[in-house]
What we know:
Two copies of one chain form a homodimer.
Chain A: H1 6-13, H2 17-25, H3 32-45, H4 51-57, E1 63-69, H5 85-99, E2 103-110, H6 114-125, E3 131-135, H7 142-149, E4 154-157, E5 166-169, H8 171-184, E6 190-194, H9 213-228, E7 237-239, H10 244-255, E8 263-266, H11 269-281, E9 291-293, E10 310-312, H12 315-330, E11 340-343, E12 346-348
Parallel strand pairs in A: 1-2, 1-3, 3-4, 4-5, 5-11, 6-7, 6-8, 8-9
Antiparallel strand pairs in A: 10-12
Amino acid sequence: MARLTIKDVAKMAGVSFQTVSLVLNHPEKVAPKTRELVQAAINALNFIPNVAARSLRNISTKTLACVMFNGSSYDERSERIQDTHYNNVLQALTRAADRVGYTLLQRNLMSDDAASLAYVRDLFLAGRIDGLIAMVTVAGHPVLSELQRMGFPCVIYGMADPQFHHVAQSDRLAALSVVDHLAQAGCRRIAFVTGPLKEHSSEVMRDQAVTTSSEARYLGYLDGLDKHGLPLRSEWVASGDWSLDGGYRAAKQLCSARQRPDAIFLGNDRMALGALKALHDLGLHVPGDISVVGFDNMRYDDFSIPSLTSVNVPMYEMSEHAVRILLDCIEKRAPAGLVQRIFPTSLVVRDSTRVPN
Amino acid sequence: MARLTIKDVAKMAGVSFQTVSLVLNHPEKVAPKTRELVQAAINALNFIPNVAARSLRNISTKTLACVMFNGSSYDERSERIQDTHYNNVLQALTRAADRVGYTLLQRNLMSDDAASLAYVRDLFLAGRIDGLIAMVTVAGHPVLSELQRMGFPCVIYGMADPQFHHVAQSDRLAALSVVDHLAQAGCRRIAFVTGPLKEHSSEVMRDQAVTTSSEARYLGYLDGLDKHGLPLRSEWVASGDWSLDGGYRAAKQLCSARQRPDAIFLGNDRMALGALKALHDLGLHVPGDISVVGFDNMRYDDFSIPSLTSVNVPMYEMSEHAVRILLDCIEKRAPAGLVQRIFPTSLVVRDSTRVPN
């Protein structure tokens, strides 16, 4: 089949090819109605504009977009500010972008559908961004797949999806190292609090190719129990939602099990802070009665009571790599193929876990 | 004097007036060298383009910029993520922008000088943003003054500068209400930990027209001591920097005073968390030995040990007003004159302060 041209799009939309060109290059100059007609034809034909030709004559916008698909940098339910994972990543990406003289354009609450695709594509076509850093919650993300086919520079932050350029942390190995540490300290009844899991993945498959952080940390926990011959009990696994409240509730629930765990490993630090409070309210001593471990190595881990053992994720370093990979793509310095970097984590032992024997 | 036109600019720059028009409306189409010549002439003549005429034919970009002058949304010194005030405000502004279908373009580390002015002006002139929300650390900010003269919609978040549209919280009254609460609970030796103060303002003037949050909270503390006839002692005032470490150090310092305070009021919650840790390390009981109060009412105040008495600042509500005022300006619905809103705060009493008598 011959490659589609803007004449095919023009024919389908019933407009001149000059109008299609205008929609692609200066959409702001086209009446909304005409623009919609042309966009509909572009979508129907799956037309891919010649991005390389466009970028040759465009000057750089020095702007990158950071888009969170199906996520938010704020707590939509609360009227009070709290730190969120996305917010932390944004903080790190903002610093990485600042360091190379780029501005960040951020967009929350993007769905996985055609409207999001049109929105992001238009940012590129209107010459308002040079590249995209995406945070996603599903593998093979449909919007990213389309953008990649169209030749727009995109990098995923936080999920090791083999289809795309990405930076991610080694969640599963990190979780294994937490169980190693707890087992060496003599803990035998190790409980786990997950992040949010998708409906269908309450039974996370160990051989699944792409996992979310929440799933991978759970799998690493299972690996650790296996390795040390420790029991897995359903009453020692609670589902959380990354929040302070979620950690508080989960810890109370786990402590009401017939046999109380002697350690709780929570999928992030916020939940771990909530758990420390719950154990304090129950009159339990940390780590004498029960050890607690978080994940992220947030600055406040030094200041919790007791200070919190956690997994360090090199967010700033990862963000700098994500931006570097993106700039390489934008400036055509990228090698052929995909650039994929998995960053090692490290366990930071503080006062919330017992000293290993 | 006759109003300057683009012909005056053209004459000075030695180019045609069509070129000047192109620089104003499509700077990306002009060679960098020519553009610089024209910008230099615009700057030298202090030429104000006719923004109203421009916006009539431009469609909305549905993008707002959030710029922090002399500030940052991240800790530049640390390799670890921590929540910052700016980050919290960004979170709230992002939500407010999302709710009205706007995207936020954020820029950190902007200085107060001509380079920043040129940067922000170009965002407007290139049709990349519709309006600006600014966070500033000085009154009568030179960049904002220029942008306002040029007719670009700007709103200040967080400082009650009478020269501009703004939203801010009533810091001074809030601090007074904290001292009221502590005095009613029987505290007589109330210490205060400031945020960063400018060099020249170690002696904050009580009659100064425009104050930063850090200064206003300190003045409210002084008002409270006056009102309740409580002593002001220099050994009970420590300077902090809004950080966890800063609060930790300040609390230790205050507790080494010849006479130990019976209450510490810290200018924000992060410092208060650091102080709780310091008092714990010193073996002091909160609130039995000493009461602690923060400021901001962050979500984690419920989960600190003990939970933290704090001042609620309605950041989400303030952000929604900031965005609304800005949209009114953009869409020419704004009444004549400046729109300035000061939001009341409220004290949220938790376990870190003694029950009032």
